[in-house]
Amino acid sequence: MARRRKKRRRRNFGSILTVLTVLIVAGAIITSITVFLKVAKFEVVGTSKYSPAEIIEASGIKTGENMFSVNKFKVSSNILKKFPYIGQIKINRRFPDTFIFTVTERTPAGYIEADDRIWLVASDGYLLESFERAEFKLVVPQIVGASLMSPLPGSKVSFEEQGKIPALSEITSGLHKHGLIPQINLIDISKLYSLSFTYQNRLKVVLGDVSDINAKIKMFNAVRDKLKETDKGTVTLTNPGEARFKPE
To answer: I want to staple 232 with a disulfide (CB 3.0 to 4.6 A). Which of 86, 183, 190, 202 is the partner?
Structure first.
């Protein structure tokens, strides 16, 4: 019996020693993280509209701050709110001391006139900034057929007719995807069943409704390549599998 008690005591002592060892090691790890993993450097990739210094300042992260105390969601939210041209930002830690900001900027896709100002619209449907008419120099298409409501830089486009918001986003995204934005003069969303755009001031392209926009724009590229550079008229693409050209 005495021997069994001694064995139990030894086992209990060994278990306690193991727990204490684990706690000591965990404490050492936590201490090293707190003491040694401090922010010292930043890298900013993918920005042209804003300087790296502006983005770092907007992040609110300070050198000397603990790497794990930084709330990446809060930091990205702060940056997106301040800079309308930034559509996405990824924030990564590179140990032992660096934060990396990878920026994806929005691309201007058109402009809308409202309250005697020109509002620049990104291809994802967000407002970027506004200009006086005299100072606006960008070569992007004018968007007509809808009235802006309460425009603010960095906010999503808002129209009285809500159905025109996804329609505009589909068209601008499609034109941007196919590299056509610089050659488009006008995007007309007046009628949701007869959306259209004007190419090089010589071809009116009728898309019909918002369905299959990408396929219709792809079809337009194929039709355009078969036309002469001097041809003028209307290209009807209400059916993505069929194109009709009516010359002027």
So the answer is: 202
What would the mean pLDDT of 114-120 be, rounded to a whole number? 93
Q: What are phi and psi of 239, to 5 degrees?
A: -110, 115
Is residue 236 within a helix (H) or strand (E), and if so which, with residue range? strand 233-239
CA atoms of 222 and 236, how far apart (whole Å): 13
Domains defined for the chain, CATH in brackets:
41-105 (3.10.20.310), 108-247 (3.40.50)
Query: What percent of the chain is predicted at pLDDT more than 70?
Result: 85
pLDDT digits (tens, 9 = 90+) for 63-96: 999 998 999 999 999 999 999 999 999 999 999 9
pLDDT, tens only, 200-217: 999 999 999 999 999 999
Cis check: omega of the bond before 96, within 30 degrees of 0: yes
Distance of alpha carbon 154 from alpha carbon 148, whole angstroms: 14
Strand ranges inside 22-123, DSSP E: 41-45, 86-94, 98-105, 108-114, 117-122
β-bridge pairing 142-144 and 184-188: parallel
